[in-house]
Write a structure and sequence with these properties.
Layout lengths: L3 E4 L20 H15 L11 H12 L7 H5 L2 E2 L9 E12 L5 E11 L4 E2 L1 H12 L2 E2 L1 H16 L3 E10 H4 L10 E6 L1 H5 L1 H12 L2
Parallel strand pairs: 1-8, 3-6
Antiparallel strand pairs: 2-5, 3-4, 4-7, 7-8
Helix pairs in contact: 1-2, 4-5
The protein binds guanosine-5'-triphosphate (GTP) and zinc ion.
The site of guanosine-5'-triphosphate has 10 residues, from helix 5 and helix 6.
């Protein structure tokens, strides 16, 4: 199946949030009871031996898979390096793998992100780009919003001349269920600053991102 290419504009309907707004959390016991309900909904018996510890494990796994709600991109991106501030050309980190979950079905999204920016003074530690992807990936997402959130977070904190984000991902809700199109991939991009206004910079981004 052909990939879908979408350009999701920065600063669109999705505001960049720092720590996600926190509703009142249910207790561990309530979360485990909800898992028992879903086990019964699936057709199994939560009281059988093999499933006795499953609610505890699922609650623990959810803490890990959705840890992004507890994390702040501003903390991660707050630490920059000034001593390389003479460097003003493109910095691009390619093919950063991530997992997320779609907000429609809570099923996994498996993808790769490529992120570039044009420094305007300070530069980021390279791992911080991957950490920002983890923060937004470990929340319930649409691919479009995740792409824009990563770009806007870097633009808002680092204030570079431009940011470019390309995400290519597979959605298990389209592969394992529903329309069942295995192997289809969705591409989304967000450009800010010079990557948005200067076609040459945008073309350089695609050359570096896609050439093997
Ligand atoms: N735009 C967008 N859509 C997504 C994303 N992840 C999942 N979806 C889509 O969300 C839509 C939800 O559609 P609905 O008709 O409300 O739900 P559904 O009956 O489960 O839809 P089907 O998946 O077609 O069976 C589906 O078309 C999914 O493919 C995403 O990241 N971005
Ligand atoms: Zn889905």
């Amino acid at each position: 199946m052909d990939a879908i290419v979408k350009n999701f504009p920065a600063g669109g309907q999705e505001q960049v949030k720092d720590k996600a707004q926190q509703p009142i959390r249910p207790t561990q016991q309530e979360a485990e009871e909800a898992v028992r309900t879903l086990l019964r909904w699936a057709g199994d018996d939560p009281a059988r031996e093999g499933l006795l510890d499953t609610p505890t494990r699922v609650a623990k796994a959810y803490r890990e898979l959705f840890a992004g709600y507890e994390q702040s991109y501003q903390e991660v991106l707050g630490r920059t390096f000034e001593e390389m501030s003479g460097f003003d050309d493109i910095v691009l980190v390619r093919d950063i793998p991530f997992f997320s979950h779609c907000e429609h079905h809570m099923l996994p999204i498996k993808g790769m992100a490529t992120v570039a920016y044009l420094p305007n003074g300070p530069v980021l530690g390279l791992s911080k780009i991957a950490r920002v992807i983890e923060i937004f990936g470990r929340r319930l997402q649409t691919q479009e919003n995740m792409t824009a959130q990563i770009a806007n977070a870097i633009q808002d904190t680092l204030k570079p001349r431009g940011v470019a984000v390309l995400i290519e991902a597979e959605h298990m809700c389209m592969e394992m269920r529903g329309v069942q199109k295995q192997g289809s991939r969705t591409l989304t991009t967000t450009f800010t600053g010079e990557f948005k206004t200067n076609p040459t910079e945008q073309a350089r981004f695609f050359t570096l991102a896609r050439n093997r």
